[in-house]
Design goal:
The chain is α/β, with parallel strands linked by helices and about 270 residues long. It has 8 helices and 9 strands. The chain starts with a helix and ends with a helix.
């Protein structure tokens, strides 16, 4: 990825608390056929341009909540109101696993969303080449998923989500299975894309450090049945693009604040 080009781009303005909501989730509840209640009475807004993290322990319903927001799972109670009346057409989703089609090349996997949206082959190919270059996979367009490392598969999954230039990007613990070095790099690249595309990100994680590093706002969830018990806002830290930020006192303070909130949620 061309980090230098992204760092030199226009600095992104912080998401403002008073900005208009992109979506309002009200009283969301979900009970599965097994009788397990994953979510109960979940209400919050998603605001334009923010990086919203949903933080909670494993099993608290974070993934179910994100899938409901994506329209992949129906809630039993509650509703979602979208500003434009419906979810943005340009929505990207990155799953916990890369979920790439094993029979298709990396390029074909990345082009898929544009093909589903009706783009012509030439437009899709040009955009795929552009986004694969940005994520550092331009030399792997003709390879197959089984030939890639775990980090490269996740880059391909991220490229597939970003190819539509999403207004909304939904991410379900996408980097949880990666080694720390790969995770740090992809966190940095994700922030650069968020700043460049000026999109809204909803990011599910169980990592205090990841939420502290990425978020402008974090919702802390209780154990199952999951509900939002605390909201913590951060101004975007421009120092995050400094390699030393992860060892700074400012970052440690953010992580400690989230850790304390997560402890209170138990």
């Amino acid at each position: 990825m061309n980090a230098g080009r992204l760092k030199g781009s226009t600095k992104r303005k912080p998401a403002k608390a008073e900005s208009a909501p992109l979506a309002e989730l009200r009283d969301i509840g979900k009970t599965f056929e097994s009788g397990i209640t994953a979510l109960r009475g979940v209400s919050f807004s998603v605001r334009r341009g923010e990086f919203l993290s949903i933080l909670g322990a494993s099993g608290c319903g974070k993934t179910s909540l994100l899938r409901i927001a994506a329209g992949l799972l129906a809630s039993d109670t509650g509703s979602i109101s979208w500003k434009e009346g419906t979810r943005p057409r340009e929505t990207g989703f990155v799953f916990q696993e890369p979920a790439l089609m094993p029979w298709a090349t990396v390029g074909a996997n990345v082009r898929l969303p544009l093909r589903l949206l009706g783009s012509d082959d030439r437009t899709a190919a040009l955009r795929a080449r552009e986004i694969l270059t940005q994520v550092g996979l331009d030399k792997f367009a003709d390879t197959y998923p089984h030939e890639l490392s775990g980090g490269m598969k996740m880059r391909a999954s991220l490229a597939r989500a970003l190819i539509v230039k999403p207004k909304l990007l939904l991410m379900d613990e996408p980097f949880a299975a990666l080694d720390e070095i790969s995770r740090f790099k992809l966190n940095d690249e994700l922030l650069a894309f968020w700043r460049e595309l000026n999109c809204t990100v909803v990011f599910v994680t169980h990592s205090v450090f990841e939420a502290a590093y990425l978020s402008t706002r974090t919702l802390v969830m209780s154990p199952r049945p999951g509900r939002v018990v605390e909201e913590i806002r951060f101004l975007p830290a421009t120092e995050r693009f400094d390699p030393q930020y992860r060892t700074s006192a400012a970052f440690a303070a953010r992580a400690r604040k989230l850790s304390d909130a997560l402890e209170r949620a138990q």
